[in-house]
Amino acid sequence: MIYYFSATGNSAWVAQKLALQTGDTAVDMRDFLKTGEIAPSPAEGERLGLVFPVHAWRPPSCVLDFVKTLQIPRDSFVYVVCTMGETAGNTIAFLQKALRINSAYSMRMPNNYILLGNRDSDLLITRKLSAAEKRIAEISEAVLAGREEFQIKRGILPGFLTCVVGALFNKYCRDRKFLAEPSCRNCGLCERLCPMNNIILENGKPVWQGHCIHCMACLQNCPEQAIQYGGITKKRKRYVFPA
Length: 243
Fold this sequence. Notes:
two-stranded antiparallel sheet, 17% strand, globular
């Protein structure tokens, strides 16, 4: 079993590739996050994989909440793959406070947090995905062999980034600047995709409810590019996995 959280498709693609190569089943955490239902825990001896993006050098808060609902048998092999733009900081060490982990890997993927800058170029996206294909094959081989290893690109000052910057991000990231421009055609996709049920439609337009985690699912997936974050994102290209 592989549980994954994905807002723009990177982690979903990784999880589905891993599932294909390991014979496991990939399941979207969002199905349970949105309904509040408790996800099935692994059976005795069943392998458990978790795939998610790094948010400000930490696991997304919704992933931490999800993990805490699982009852994991002692003989289950638990592995984690965190997708990231460049570095993961102490993401895995932070997750280990809530979860026993046998193996963990970081995987460099296209950047999708465009509040801090433009997305990667098309060439860089292609190069990252090509490297990721090889990385997934290596991870799948290790998982099938049951190897216990931690291969994480933590970067410079990982403790500071995770403990200080990550804490500030979680405290101060807000949704007050999100808005829908007149080009919004009332499709409701943003409401359906939001893992936190943070968007409701009023007169067909999205209204944010104050418990956003900045996953960018709404902004990146809008088919009209009508969702903006203040004036920051107006001229920036969107990113969703190029499937």
